């Protein structure tokens, strides 16, 4: 088949690698892809949120299946549009993607379905939100309800902090329309777990678990980012914990969405806090996590495209995936300045040396090919990923590879995978 992958991050590079291993795929297009995908696919320069453009390109190139990586086109209805045009596409409809694109809706639905989550409320008026904060005596988290490229959640230490953030979102409109509604909720304590599942409307197939490191700096210091590294599996995801997550979180939300008339098809990502009171949902995402996908799919031995086709066709109950039992760990190398402003166009060296190491793969994210060079082209630049017999060995291998790679002002954490031991 002719397959198109929409997006250009590390998640899309690992999806593209999985697609090249599938005997089902004869031709692979990445839209827009990056320097990594250019070595294994035809890159077509197009913005993933340009839905008309993506659909026209898919038709022009006689694409048989589209896989959508990022949330923005999903929430904007790319799946509905493609389906209406008779194209086969993997991902949730806009109505189902609301689970990520509208946190206030997600919170209401969780409440309706009795899903364990932080206690909180939604507000459209800043005065009401401030009054609510004043009645709380524990730290709160303030979230822009709409999509804000991973920056719309602020974990606050005290009420004064929360009041400032409310002004920033609702009065100064830092995130525009995305902050017109905010969710204020209690700050949960614990360790975060990322649970990704394929869902075909009804059947749920849980993938191997992962842990992501969201904070910019070592020791979980600094602002939250899209994710600075991940490893899979999580040693915290015991059968008992996964049983609770399945029964109290995944099954009720999938049933709830179906009842709402928005059956979920695609990858459902539950961001979970493992609290002393049990697993609680921080957020649902409507797509693969990045960099979780790099760590998880690095371990996949089965044909991902076969599983994705089964999901699209509603035959997920026939799927059984095989995994490398060894852990995998991904270290994100970012541009200095990320998640705020950063420079692009820095020459990247050492990629071949790094990839020559045992069990190492370098997934590209914000990279671009310029003639024979590879240069930086985004905030998160590379996901240096390795397998090992233990998380410690995977980590040693990943950091040996990181040490061989250079670009000006590179920033990465030195402690990915450390809390897991
Ligand atoms: P979200 O997009 O809602 O997952 O938020 C992004 C990140 O903010 C999460 O991965 C957590 O690290 C943090 N976060 C969100 N909600 C909470 C909460 N209620 N308590 C503590 N941390 C949170
Ligand atoms: N790594 C977190 C996310 O993909 O949302």
Can you describe what's shown?
- This protein folds into four domains: 2-91, 3-Layer(aba) Sandwich (Rossmann fold), CATH 3.40.50; 121-186, Dna Ligase, domain 1, CATH 3.30.1490.20; 191-318, ATP-grasp fold, B domain (D-amino Acid Aminotransferase, Chain A, domain 1, 2-Layer Sandwich); 328-420, Phosphoribosylglycinamide synthetase, C-terminal domain (Glycinamide Ribonucleotide Synthetase, Chain A, domain 4).
- Helix content is 32%, strand content 27%.
- The chain contains 14 helices and 23 strands.
- The protein has helices at 10-20, 35-38, 51-60, 71-75, 78-84, 94-101, 103-112, 126-134, 159-171, 239-259, 292-297, 304-313, 351-355, 391-404, and strands at residues 2-7, 27-32, 42-43, 65-68, 89-90, 120-123, 140-144, 153-155, 182-186, 191-200, 204-206, 211-212, 215-217, 221-224, 229-232, 265-275, 278-285, 328-335, 360-364, 367-370, 373-376, 380-387, 410-411.
- Strands 12, 15, 18, 19, 22 and 23 form a six-stranded antiparallel sheet that branches. Strands 3-2-1-4-5 form a five-stranded parallel sheet. A four-stranded antiparallel sheet has the order 6-9-7-8, with helices on both faces.
- A hairpin with an 8-residue loop joins strand 7 and strand 8 (153-155).
- Helix 8 (126-134) runs antiparallel to helix 9.
- The mean pLDDT is 96.
- The chain binds adenosine monophosphate and glycine (GLY).
- Residues 118, 141, 143, 153, 155, 185, 187-188, 192, 214, 224, 271, 282-283 line the site of adenosine monophosphate.
């Amino acid at each position: 088949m002719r397959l198109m992958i929409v997006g250009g991050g590390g998640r899309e590079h690992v999806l593209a690698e999985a697609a090249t291993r599938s005997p089902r795929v004869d031709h692979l297009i990445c839209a827009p892809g990056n320097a990594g995908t250019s070595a294994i696919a035809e890159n077509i320069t197009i913005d993933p949120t340009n839905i008309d453009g993506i659909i026209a390109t898919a038709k022009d190139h006689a694409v048989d299946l589209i896989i959508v990586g990022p949330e923005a086109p999903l929430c904007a209805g790319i799946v509905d549009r493609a389906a209406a045009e008779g194209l086969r596409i993997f991902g949730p409809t806009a109505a189902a993607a609301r689970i990520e694109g509208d946190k206030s809706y997600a919170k209401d639905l969780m409440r309706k379905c009795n899903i364990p989550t932080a206690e909180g409320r939604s507000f459209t008026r800043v005065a009401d939100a401030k009054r609510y904060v004043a009645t709380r005596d524990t730290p709160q988290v303030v979230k822009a309800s709409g999509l804000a490229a991973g920056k719309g959640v602020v974990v606050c230490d005290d009420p004064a902090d929360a009041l400032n953030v409310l002004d920033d979102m609702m009065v100064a409109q830092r995130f525009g329309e995305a902050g017109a509604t905010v969710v204020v909720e209690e700050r949960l304590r614990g360790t975060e777990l990322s649970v990704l599942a394929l869902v075909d409307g009804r059947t749920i197939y849980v993938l191997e678990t992962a842990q992501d490191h969201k904070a910019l700096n070592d020791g979980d210091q600094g602002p939250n980012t899209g994710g600075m590294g991940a490893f899979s599996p999580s040693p915290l995801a015991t059968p008992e914990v996964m049983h609770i997550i399945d029964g109290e979180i995944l099954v009720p939300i999938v049933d709830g969405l179906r009842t709402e008339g928005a059956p979920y098809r695609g990858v459902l990502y539950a961001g979970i806090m493992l609290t002393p009171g049990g697993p609680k949902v921080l957020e649902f995402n409507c797509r693969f996590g990045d960099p979780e996908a790099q760590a998880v799919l690095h371990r996949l031995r089965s044909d991902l495209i076969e599983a994705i086709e089964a999901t699209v066709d509603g035959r997920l109950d026939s799927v059984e995936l095989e995994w490398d039992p060894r852990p995998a760990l991904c270290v994100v190398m970012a541009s200095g300045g990320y998640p705020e402003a950063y420079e692009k166009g820095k020459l990247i060296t050492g990629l071949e040396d790094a990839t020559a190491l045992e069990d190492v793969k370098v997934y590209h994210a914000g990279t671009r090919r310029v003639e024979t060079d590879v240069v930086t082209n985004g905030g998160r630049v590379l996901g240096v990923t390795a397998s090992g017999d233990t998380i410690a060995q995977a980590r040693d291998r990943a950091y040996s590879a990181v040490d061989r790679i250079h670009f000006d002002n590179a920033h990465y954490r030195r402690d990915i995978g450390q809390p897991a031991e």
